[in-house]
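Dear U.,

Please find below the material for section 3 of the report. The protein was modelled together with adenosine-5'-diphosphate; I have listed the sequence and SMILES used, followed by the predicted complex structure.
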Amino acid sequence: MPLLEITGLTRRFGGLTAVDAVSLHLTAGETLSIIGPNGAGKTTLFNLISGIDIPDTGTVCLGGHSLGGLTPERIAALGLARTFQHGRVFGNLSVRDNVLIGAHARLRAARPGLPLVGPLVELALALVRPAAVAAEEQALADEVTAILGRFGERLLPRIDQPAHSLSYANRRRLEIARALMLRPRLLLLDEPTAGMNPTETAEMLEVIRGLKDDGLSMLLIEHKLELVMALSDRVMVLDGGAVIAEGMPAAVRADPRVIEAYLGRRHSAEREPPPLAAQQFAHQLEATS
Ligand SMILES: Nc1ncnc2c1ncn2[C@@H]1O[C@H](COP(=O)(O)OP(=O)(O)O)[C@@H](O)[C@H]1O
Ligand SMILES: [Mg+2]
């Protein structure tokens, strides 16, 4: 049974079909990259999978459970974690607390008797619990340290600092750390290296490779082709909401439909040059083929 199975997923916004009858499957342990020009529907697809948005038609199953109609929190409790294209962290909370919040959905799933409260109240309750749960708290603290350690010296020395004091790249790293604290069965990364310089990008590649080596299943939205080639078991290409190519990375890279999606007739027919991201991607296609 595939870990993730998506069938005929469609989402329309007025007259625009942002995601158009997308089907995909992911086997446990696999990394599937989703690439495509800006506006192709990649983030919308993640929103549909994670329950933040609701499809017009189509189904998403995680580990055999249909996710249809479930809230994002229920979906998280089933083991699905994601990061956002425009990183989201709690600026006034420390690095440590931002990561701890990632355990919230998991802990509530393990203790269904707990009342439905927000993550901060949950943390506050944890603080007044007596020694009986001290061991659990120590285990959580150790887990935070281990997860932050995946990012070398980037986050660990800043564990007590508020997230708003972090650099942009560190906030993106922190978001991934929080997602990992869920101990996800499936991790969705939306452009994890967007806005990062080459050194930071190379570091992120190693972090994601480490997750992959540990057997984590991932969907990766990424524009930087060297990452896509290095990390993907398979690549799926979206254009105009629809899947236009899918397969092994090298084959997809050479697919004329893929090249056209980035630098195709649509653009040459216009006076304006294609968007910079498309030019860069096409350049990378040439450089790596
Ligand atoms: N909430 C929304 N309302 C209306 N249109 C949207 C909404 N979200 C996304 N879109 C549109 O759907 C298309 C796909 O967007 P998106 O999924 O963000 O693309 P990508 O992540 O591939 O760049 C775009 O044309 C975008 O403007
Ligand atoms: Mg996007």
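For the text of the report, you could mention the following: The longest helix spans residues 134-149.

Regards,
Y.
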